[in-house]
């Protein structure tokens, strides 16, 4: 028997970095997906095949001793074998159309689709349980994850998140397109977050004012999302980028890309940690093609996405 699941990637629309200091952020799932197929096989082994490499190990190894980006899958398979008292082997095949390591939620989508496909080989597992398993699996590679990414990958749609109150799904279903441009500079979220901490320590008053400004901006955005006011939303994106520039998470390549985005769409900003990774520009049918062509003309890798409202899907 095969068990198959897929989960979407994500972008942070507003509030990255400030969310670390208690401000609300807004995230959405995107229609780029990871699909995981799990199957019971002969022999006591856990075999993982993906386009970034393969991993074959016997069960019951301490996860801390495994040095592979595929270790969340091993963790999930091993956990299920243990909890179900099974001695079978498991083969896991991972297929992804989410670029890796550039802030688009590739690892969270892997953990969510992996948790669903692997657990459902043994038992019917509700979404809430799959999310818990996925967050535990993601912690094997990113100890400090807030769980926000796995949550939006599980439930899809748009979500507001803050550290104190957790996640709230936003009901509106706007029809916009995002053009995502990839700087192809891999970033370390941890080191960019550390840089912002240093900025905060050296500029306490300015940083506190920026947090207040960002909070106000996010509240405005929540109202605009209900009204589908795309042009005003674009202005908020441009304003959010000003705050991100101020705290030092941008660089020349990202600024050049954002300039292309801002000229050709309603607004453009970094998504995620910055320092590399991706930016997005906000478009609708009227300027989607134009924005894509402008990025392509300047030789920037880009693609368009829409919001994914499905979240985790199982087959
Ligand atoms: O680029 P990503 O998806 O790793 O985004 C990081 C978001 C930050 O706000 C910068 C950090 C965090 O933990 O929220």
Verbal overview:
- With 315 residues, the chain is of the alpha+beta class.
- It has two domains: 2-171, Ribosomal Protein S5, domain 2 (2-Layer Sandwich), CATH 3.30.230; 177-306, Alpha-Beta Plaits (2-Layer Sandwich), CATH 3.30.70.
- It has nine helices and twelve strands.
- The chain has helices spanning 71-83, 106-119, 127-139, 148-155, 189-202, 204-227, 230-246, 252-264, 288-297; strands at residues 2-14, 25-41, 46-50, 53-57, 89-96, 158-162, 166-170, 177-182, 267-271, 278-283, 301-306, 313-314.
- The strands form two sheets. Strands 1, 2, 3, 4, 5, 6, 7 and 12 form an eight-stranded mixed sheet that branches. It has a four-stranded antiparallel sheet with strand order 9-10-8-11.
- It binds (3R)-3-hydroxy-3-methyl-5-(phosphonooxy)pentanoic acid (PMV).
- (3R)-3-hydroxy-3-methyl-5-(phosphonooxy)pentanoic acid is lined by residues 12, 16-17, 19-20, 103, 146, 189, 193, 272-273, 277.
**Coarse structural class:** alpha+beta
CATH C-level label of the largest domain: Alpha Beta
The CATH architecture designation of the largest domain is: 2-Layer Sandwich
The residue-averaged pLDDT reads 95
Rg on CA atoms, Å = 20 Å
Ranges where pLDDT stays below 50 over 5 or more residues in a row are none
Count, helices? 9
Write down how many β-strands occur, each being a DSSP E stretch of 2 or more residues. 12
* Major sheet description: 8 strands, mixed
What is the end-to-end distance? 12 Å
The share of residues in extended strands comes to: 25-35%
Q: Into which percent range does the helicity of residues fall?
A: 40-55%
The small molecules bound here are: (3R)-3-hydroxy-3-methyl-5-(phosphonooxy)pentanoic acid
Order of helices and strands: EEEEHEHHHEEEHHHHEEHEE
Shape: globular
Number of domains: 2
**CATH topology tier name of the largest domain:** Ribosomal Protein S5, domain 2
């Amino acid at each position: 028997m095969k068990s198959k699941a897929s989960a979407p990637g994500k972008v942070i629309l507003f509030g990255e970095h400030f969310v670390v200091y208690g401000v609300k952020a807004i995230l959405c799932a995107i229609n780029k997906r990871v699909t995981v197929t799990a199957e019971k096989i002969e022999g006591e082994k856990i075999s993982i095949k993906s386009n970034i490499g393969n991993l074959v190990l016997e069960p019951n190894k301490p996860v801390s001793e495994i040095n592979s980006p595929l270790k969340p899958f091993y963790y999930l398979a091993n956990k299920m074998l243990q909890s179900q008292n099974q001695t079978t082997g498991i083969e896991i095949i991972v297929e992804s159309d989410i670029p890796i390591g550039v802030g688009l939620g590739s690892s969270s989508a892997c953990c969510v689709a992996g948790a669903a496909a692997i657990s459902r080989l043994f038992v019917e597992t509700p979404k809430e349980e799959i999310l818990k398993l996925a967050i535990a699996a993601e912690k094997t590679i990113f100890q400090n994850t807030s769980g926000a990414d796995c949550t939006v990958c599980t439930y899809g749609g748009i979500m507001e998140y803050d550290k104190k109150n957790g996640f709230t799904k936003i009901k509106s279903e706007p029809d916009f397109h995002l053009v995502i441009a990839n700087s192809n500079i891999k970033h370390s979220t941890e080191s960019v977050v550390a840089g912002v901490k240093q900025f905060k320590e050296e500029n306490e008053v300015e940083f506190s004012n920026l947090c207040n400004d960002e909070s106000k901006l996010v509240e405005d955005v929540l109202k605009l999302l209900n009204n589908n006011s795309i042009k005003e939303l674009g202005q908020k994106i441009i304003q959010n980028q000003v705050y991100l520039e101020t705290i030092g998470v941008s660089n020349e390549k990202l600024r050049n890309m954002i300039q292309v985005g801002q000229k050709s769409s309603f607004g453009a900003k970094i998504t995620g940690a910055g320092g590399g990774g991706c930016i997005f520009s906000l478009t609708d049918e009227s300027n989607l093609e134009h924005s894509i062509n402008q990025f392509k003309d300047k030789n920037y890798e880009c693609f368009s996405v829409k919001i994914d409202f499905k979240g985790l899907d199982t087959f």
